[in-house]
Automatic annotation (TrEMBL):
Keywords: Membrane, Transmembrane, Transmembrane helix
Entry's transmembrane regions: 21-42, 62-79, 127-146, 166-186, 198-217, 229-250, 257-276, 288-308, 315-332
Name of the protein in its database record: PNPLA domain-containing protein
Signal sequence segment: none
Organism, as annotated: Aquimarina atlantica
Length: 768
C-alpha cells in the first residue's frame, strides 16, 4: 500500500512538471499539432505525400522535404533552451547566432540524493524537447502509412502496423523516457552494449546512406510509398541517435558552431519564406509539401523571436500579439476588401433560357432532319475532385472534339455544368472551343513536339501538369494570414493568384497569338449576340455553379435567365443578384471558375459587397459548388426539362428525332461501408459522408448509361519505352491525388485511362 501511494505521489509530481515544461515548449506543440492535422486529417494535404513520391524531381524534392523536417526537429530540440532566464539574460542581438544556451545546466545540483521533484524537473528540461522533436519525425513517417491505408494500398507495412495505434504506442514510449528512473534503467541497459564515438558516427552515416539508397530505387508507384516510409523512419532513428548521444557528439563538435548552425538554418528558412511571399510565383517550382513545412516552420521562428524579445522586455509579447491578432482579424474581416471579386463591365443582354434553347434547336434543324436516326443532344455533368477531375473532364471533351472534327461542340453539345475541379475543366475546354467557333476555325487540343512535353498527348495534360497548390498554401500561411490580422498593404489574395496561374498556363498552350488572356475575359462576353449571329450556331450553355456561404443556397453563373422556371426553382441566379448592386456588370471566367472550385481554406471564399434592404453594407460570400452538389446534376436535370418543354411546344415534329443524353464525367471512388461509429463520432461521420451520398443519388437520377469513370490505369514506367519491344516492360499504376498538383505519371495514367474508355466515348456520338 505504501509503495502504491508513493507511486501515485511520484506520478502526480511527474505529471505537474510535465505540464509545466510543456508550457515552455508551447510553440513546439503548435508546430507538431499543425503538421499532424495537416498530414493525417485533411484530404488535400494527405495527398501531398503521394505527390512527393511521384515527383518528377524526386532526388531533389524528397531531400528538401527531409531537410525541412530535420531542421524542424533540431529547432524543437534547442529553441526552448533560449527561454530560460540564465540563458536569455545574456543574449543580445550581436551574440544570438553562436550563443550557447546551456547556462541553466550550470546551476543544477550535482548531488545524487536530491529530491524526486528536483530530479524530474532537471531531467524533463533536458529530455522533453528531444522527445517532441522525435515525435514530429514519427508523425511524418506514420502519416505515410496512414495515407496508404486511406487509399487502401496494402503491403507488408500496413498489414503489420496500424498507423494510429502505432503512433499511440510511440507516444507512450516517449513519455516513459521523460521519467528519470525509467530512463536511467534504459540507459544502463543500452550502456551494456559496447559502443564508441566511431560507432555512433558510422551508424549515423549508415542511416543517411540507407535513406539515399531507398530514394534511388523509387519508381513512383504506390509500393514505393513503403520505401518513403522506411526512409522517414531512418530519419527519425538518425535524429534519435544524434540527440540522445549529444553529450558525446558535442564533445567533438564545437558547441558555438552547432547552435549557430541550428539558429542560422531557422532564420535562413524564415527569410526564404518571406522572400517567397513577395514573389509567390516562385513557390510553384517547389513541392507543396515542402512549402507547407516551410510555412509552418517560419511561423514557429516568428513565434520564437516574439517570445525571446518578450522575455528580454519583460512583457508577454507573444501572448499580446496573438490576442491582438484574434481581435483584429474579427475587426478587419467586416470592412476588408481583400477577398472582393473583380467586377467587370458587361454589355451582353441575357435571354431567357427558353428563348436560348429555342434558338439552339432552330440553328440545328437542318442537321437534325438530314441525320439518319436520332440526333444526340448532350448534357454534360462533371464531378468535382481537384485537378484530377478538371483534367479528366478536359480530356474527355478534347477527345470528343478531335474525334468529331469539332461537331461535338458545334452541333451536339447542349450544356456543360459540374462542380469544383470538373467544372474548371469544362470551362477551359469551352473557352478554346467557343473562341475557335466564333472565328470559324477548328481548335487543336493535341500537343505538338514543340510544346515541351513529349510524354503527353493532349494540351489539357500539359495545362494540368503545372503546380497550382504551392502558391495557395504559401499565401494561406503567409501574406493572406498577415492581411487577415493587420489589414496592412494591398496585394492579390491567393484566389486571385490562382486565377492568374490558370490564365498564364492556359495561354501558354492555347491562343498564344492573342494579346488578352482568354480565361480573364468577362463571362458573358463569350455569348455576345450569340443568338443573332449569322452563319454561326448558338453555343452550348456553360453553367458554372457555386454555393452561397451565408444561406447555403445553390447559385448558378449562367449566360441565360432562369429564375422564373419551375424546373430550376431554388437555384439562385448569381449574375442577376450581382447586377442588383452592379448594373451591367459580370465577373471574369477565371473568377467564376475559382468560386466554383474552392478547397476549404486553401482557396478563399469570394466576396461581393452589397447593400441590404435596411441599407446596411455587407459582403455576399461564395464557396465551392461541391458543398451542395458535387456533380452539377441538379442543373442538368433542370435544363433537360426546360429543353423538353421547348421541344414539345415549338418543335413537336422533332421530338422523335432528338435523343437527349446525360454524359457524366465522374471519379471511380466507391466507399466501403465502414464499421459502426461511436455516438461521439457518428454526427461528424454523417457530415463527412453526406456530400458523397448526395452526389451518388444525383448520378443515379441522371442514369449510368453514359457515365465515364476515372480510374488509376497502368502505364509503362518510362514513356520512351516502345511497346513493340520483346523485353518485358515494367508497368506501374500510380495513385491519383486529389489536390491541385498532378505528377507526370498521374497525368500519363489518366491519358491511358482515356484510351480505355474510347469505345464508350465513340458511342456517345453514334446514332441510337
Amino acid at each position: 500500500m505504501v509503495k502504491l501511494l508513493l507511486f501515485f505521489q511520484q506520478f502526480s509530481i511527474w505529471f505537474k512538471i510535465l505540464l509545466s515544461e510543456l508550457s515552455n515548449n508551447l510553440i513546439s506543440l503548435f508546430l507538431i499539432l499543425a503538421l499532424y492535422f495537416a498530414l493525417w486529417h485533411f484530404p488535400q494535404t494527405i495527398d501531398l505525400l503521394l505527390i512527393l513520391n511521384q515527383a518528377d524531381a524526386f532526388l531533389f524534392e524528397v531531400p528538401l522535404y527531409f531537410f525541412l523536417l530535420m531542421v524542424s526537429a533540431f529547432l524543437i530540440w534547442n529553441i526552448p533552451k533560449y527561454f530560460y532566464y540564465y540563458n536569455y539574460k545574456d543574449i543580445s542581438f550581436s551574440n544570438l547566432i553562436g550563443f550557447v544556451p546551456n547556462q541553466h545546466y550550470k546551476f543544477q545540483e550535482r548531488n545524487k540524493s536530491v529530491r524526486y521533484h528536483y530530479l524530474v524537473r532537471i531531467h524533463m528540461r533536458k529530455v522533453l524537447p528531444r522527445i517532441l522533436a522525435l515525435l514530429l519525425l514519427i508523425i511524418s513517417a506514420l502519416s505515410i502509412l496512414n495515407a496508404m491505408e486511406l487509399f487502401e494500398l496494402d503491403n507488408i507495412y500496413t498489414n503489420f502496423l496500424e498507423p494510429t495505434d502505432t503512433l499511440i504506442y510511440c507516444i507512450f514510449f516517449l513519455f516513459l523516457l521523460s521519467e528519470p528512473t525509467i530512463y536511467s534503467h534504459m540507459q544502463e541497459f543500452i550502456n551494456k552494449i559496447p559502443k564508441t564515438n566511431a560507432f555512433i558516427v558510422l551508424l549515423s552515416v549508415g542511416l543517411i546512406v540507407f535513406i539515399i539508397s531507398l530514394g534511388t530505387l523509387n519508381t513512383q508507384t504506390e509500393k514505393d510509398l513503403g520505401n518513403l516510409f522506411l526512409s522517414n523512419c531512418a530519419l527519425a532513428l538518425f535524429f534519435f541517435t544524434l540527440s540522445f548521444n549529444s553529450y558525446r557528439f558535442l564533445k567533438e563538435f564545437p558547441q558555438k558552431l552547432f547552435y549557430g548552425i541550428v539558429l542560422f538554418s531557422g532564420f535562413i528558412l524564415l527569410f526564404s519564406f518571406l522572400a517567397l511571399n513577395f514573389v509567390p510565383e516562385w513557390a510553384s517550382r517547389i513541392n507543396p509539401l515542402s512549402i507547407l513545412t516551410l510555412s509552418l516552420l517560419s511561423l514557429f521562428m516568428i513565434s520564437f523571436v516574439l517570445i525571446l524579445l518578450g522575455k528580454k522586455l519583460k512583457l508577454p509579447l507573444f501572448s499580446i500579439i496573438v490576442v491582438l491578432c484574434l481581435f483584429s482579424s474579427r475587426l478587419f474581416s467586416e470592412s476588408s476588401d481583400h477577398y472582393q471579386l473583380t467586377i467587370k463591365p458587361s454589355e451582353v443582354e441575357r435571354p431567357n433560357m427558353e428563348q436560348y434553347l429555342y434558338q439552339w434547336i432552330k440553328d440545328r434543324i437542318d442537321i437534325i432532319e438530314e441525320r439518319e436516326g436520332k440526333f444526340p443532344a448532350l448534357l454534360v455533368s462533371s464531378e468535382g475532385g481537384g485537378s484530377r477531375a478538371g483534367l479528366w473532364s478536359f480530356l474527355i471533351h478534347s477527345y470528343l472534339y478531335e474525334k468529331s472534327n469539332g461537331r461535338y461542340f458545334e452541333e451536339n453539345l447542349l450544356s456543360l455544368t459540374g462542380a469544383s475541379g470538373g467544372s474548371v475543366g469544362n470551362a477551359m475546354f469551352f473557352a478554346e472551343a467557343q473562341l475557335a467557333m466564333y472565328n470559324n476555325k477548328k481548335a487543336s487540343f493535341k500537343t505538338k513536339s514543340t510544346d515541351g512535353y513529349p510524354a503527353l498527348k493532349y494540351k489539357a495534360s500539359a495545362v494540368y501538369k503545372e503546380n497550382y497548390l504551392s502558391v495557395s498554401l504559401l499565401s494561406l500561411l503567409g501574406r493572406d494570414l498577415f492581411k487577415e490580422t493587420t489589414s496592412l498593404f494591398r496585394f492579390k489574395n491567393r484566389g486571385k493568384l490562382l486565377e492568374e496561374q490558370w490564365s498564364h498556363t492556359y495561354k501558354k498552350y492555347f491562343s498564344k497569338e492573342l494579346d488578352e488572356d482568354i480565361l480573364q475575359k468577362e463571362f458573358l462576353s463569350f455569348y455576345n449576340n450569340s443568338t443573332h449571329k449569322e452563319k454561326k450556331r448558338t453555343a452550348p450553355l456553360l453553367l458554372i455553379n457555386t454555393t452561397h456561404t451565408q444561406t447555403g443556397n445553390y447559385n448558378v453563373i449562367s449566360p441565360v435567365k432562369y429564375a422564373h422556371l419551375r424546373p430550376l426553382t431554388g437555384m439562385r441566379d448569381f449574375i442577376e443578384n450581382l447586377q442588383k448592386s452592379y448594373p451591367d456588370s459580370s465577373i471574369g471566367l477565371s473568377t467564376a471558375m475559382r468560386i466554383n472550385a474552392g478547397f476549404p481554406y486553401i482557396t478563399p471564399v469570394g466576396e461581393v459587397k452589397t447593400t441590404s434592404v435596411s441599407g446596411k453594407q455587407y459582403s455576399d460570400q461564395y464557396a465551392d459548388a461541391g458543398y451542395y452538389d458535387n456533380v452539377g446534376g441538379i442543373v442538368s436535370k433542370g435544363v433537360e426539362e426546360v429543353f423538353r418543354n421547348v421541344l414539345r411546344d415549338s418543335f413537336p415534329e422533332l421530338q422523335d428525332k432528338i435523343n437527349i443524353k446525360h454524359i457524366i464525367i465522374a471519379n471511380s471512388e466507391e466507399r466501403k461501408i465502414i464499421k459502426t461509429q461511436t455516438q461521439y463520432k457518428a454526427p461528424l461521420t454523417t457530415l463527412q459522408n453526406v456530400r458523397y451520398g448526395h452526389t451518388q443519388e444525383i448520378i443515379k437520377k441522371l442514369g449510368s448509361k453514359y457515365i465515364i469513370k476515372l480510374q488509376p490505369t497502368a502505364i509503362p514506367l518510362s514513356f520512351s519505352e516502345s511497346e513493340n519491344k520483346e523485353e518485358e516492360v515494367l508497368m506501374i499504376k500510380p495513385v491519383l491525388p486529389l489536390g491541385r498538383y498532378l505528377s507526370t505519371v498521374a497525368v500519363r495514367s489518366m491519358e491511358a485511362r482515356l484510351n480505355k474508355v474510347k469505345p464508350q466515348l465513340d458511342a456517345i456520338l453514334t446514332v441510337n
